TrEMBL record:
Name of the protein in its database record: DUF5648 domain-containing protein
InterPro entries: DUF5648
Domain of life: Bacteria
DUF5648 domain segment(s): 61-195
Length: 335
């Protein structure tokens, strides 16, 4: 599943040099453009702020069937290539159905649904009780699929489990009318777990994520749970660090290329073309300066964790003396 998600996202890795860091429009992005794309001067920190993207539910369980092996298989990936197997070559599994979506692995209230694969007969079982395989040869855990919903939860529905001895294979369905209490050689084994409809899923986006809009070439950052436009290329080079790590052969900090309108949530004030970083030589405290409408909009960078999360440029911090920070707010990591 991780491979599938990564394949849907193109990362643009940028260096600090002018030749290696290009933008379609290098002019300052004006207030008119900001308003056109929904950027307004809203408060920088709010409990209600959130930035997210709508995608496929990561806990969706897909069902496959192969007329070649006469077996049903299941996975949280829609790619048949990720199904377990014991032999090379073609298994001819095709995506037959979507069972539904499990609950979150961390926050879900039910038991974990796990997939188990038998290396002797290539049967695959989904269960919330892995103890059923105790003492039975050949069973290997394939993966966790998310947690079962509680049967009492609104919107949940049962998944029915069947077994066919002639093909050594299990079958799961959300529609009991499909096989009833057993049919076509399948023996009914009961309710396996509970799922819900697999609708669109909101992925909340972390602070410090950078984007490039494929339509305009403009750049953005998620800062304190707000999507904020970066006003100029020169400022991006000055404040943020996209150089590759030549010591370890690692690429620079990623920038995700997409249609920025697919990113939902709070739009915050622009990161000004005049933004810069400072450090008080007396206290060692670092600051993020984002001048707006004649005001300094100075924020304390409280520690290295915050400095690193926002990918600030450590070599472009200006040294200053005597910054008064008695009333200044700290720049925060909100998610």
């Amino acid at each position: 599943m991780k491979k599938l998600l990564l394949s849907l996202i193109t990362l643009s890795l940028l260096s600090c040099s002018k030749d290696g860091f290009e933008i379609q429009n290098e002019e300052t992005q004006t207030k008119k453009n900001q308003l056109m794309y929904g950027f307004v001067n809203t408060p920088t920190v709010s409990d209600s702020n959130k930035v997210w993207q709508v995608g496929t539910n990561p806990w969706t369980i897909y069902g496959f069937y192969s007329s070649h092996t006469k077996k049903h298989m299941y996975s949280n990936s829609p790619l048949p290539s990720e199904l377990p197997r014991t032999q090379p070559g073609q298994y001819y599994n095709f995506l037959e159905r979507t069972l539904g979506a499990a609950d979150d692995k961390v926050t879900g209230k039910g038991n974990m649904i796990t997939a188990w694969f038998n290396i002797n007969n290539e049967d695959l079982v989904l269960t919330t009780n892995p103890n059923e395989f105790n003492g039975q040869p050949g069973w290997k855990k394939d993966r966790d699929l998310g947690k079962s919903f509680l049967g009492s939860e609104e919107g949940s529905f049962p998944i029915y489990r069947y077994y066919r001895n002639s093909t050594s294979s299990h079958f799961y369905t959300r529609d009991k009318n499909e096989l009833g209490d057993g049919n076509s050689g399948f023996v009914y084994e009961g309710v396996a777990f509970y799922l819900k409809e697999s609708g669109p899923w909101e992925f909340r986006i972390q602070d410090g994520t950078f984007y490039k809009d494929i339509n305009t070439g403009y750049y953005y950052i998620v800062m304190e749970s707000q999507l904020r436009i970066l006003e100029s290329l020169e400022m991006i080079r000055r404040v943020f660090d996209f150089r590759p790590d030549t010591r370890y052969g690692l690429p620079g900090h990623p920038i995700i290329e997409l249609d920025i309108q697919t990113i939902k949530g709070t739009r915050g004030p622009a990161i000004s073309a005049n933004a810069y970083l400072t450090q008080d030589v007396n206290t060692g405290m670092r600051y993020f300066n984002n001048p707006q409408n004649g005001r300094g909009n100075l924020k304390i960078i409280p520690n290295d964790v915050v400095f690193s999360r926002y990918n600030f440029h450590k070599d472009n911090v200006q040294k200053v003396t005597g910054t008064n920070n008695s009333r200044l707010q700290e720049l925060k990591i909100t998610y």
